[in-house]
Amino acid sequence: MSKMTILCIGAHPDDVEIGMGGTTAMHTKKGDDVYVCSLTKGELSSNGTVETRQREAEAAATQLKVTGRYQLHFPDRGISSDHHEYIVLLDMIRQVKPDVVFAPYFEDRHPDHSACSELVRQAVFDAGIKKYPEVQHPSFKVDSFFYYFINGFDVPDFYLDISSEQERKEGALLCYESQFVLQAESVATPLTEGYIESVRSRDAMFGKQAGVRYAEGFKSAAPLVLASIPKRRA
Question: Signal peptide position in this chain (predicted)?
Fold first, then answer.
């Protein structure tokens, strides 16, 4: 199988690790090029400074061994295609030339996750428009676009077995100590109240549905077409 280029986009640092850290680790281990992009710096987060979260994001990227990490400058709670950073996002997609793009699933309790989902959907489409103005790199059509889950979940269109990478995924999440560990100077939030354990439980539930120990579930932006009937163990 030929080498793949994968672009995983989230609204905040830690979104990709929550939703698809295992998949990211699995593909970097296979030798694929995997890039992670955060649209905002999460500057409105209840805990942690922007500087702290950037250090944590770099540590998580190292843990997952990603090819590269992009930090864009959309304002937290201000993700919109009207913002000037939209052109930067569009140009990044054209420059990376990903075979696959991932974004958060649009049904999520956090408005930024829903906004990120829609923004990336638009950007993937606009990346293929040859005459789109103000973009430096030539147009590029992304082959596949999928959604990962952050806070909520739905019935996935497909699962990926991350059993061998669950530990590395949780190691990447633990890099975000300011978000997931209640400290003396922090305030209690849903993220500090057993959030990593809840992510593990969801991965275990998806794994049970898929017949493996741990799995991550994904929705497809378009109908999936298979080359042949897949085998499924009983």
Answer: none
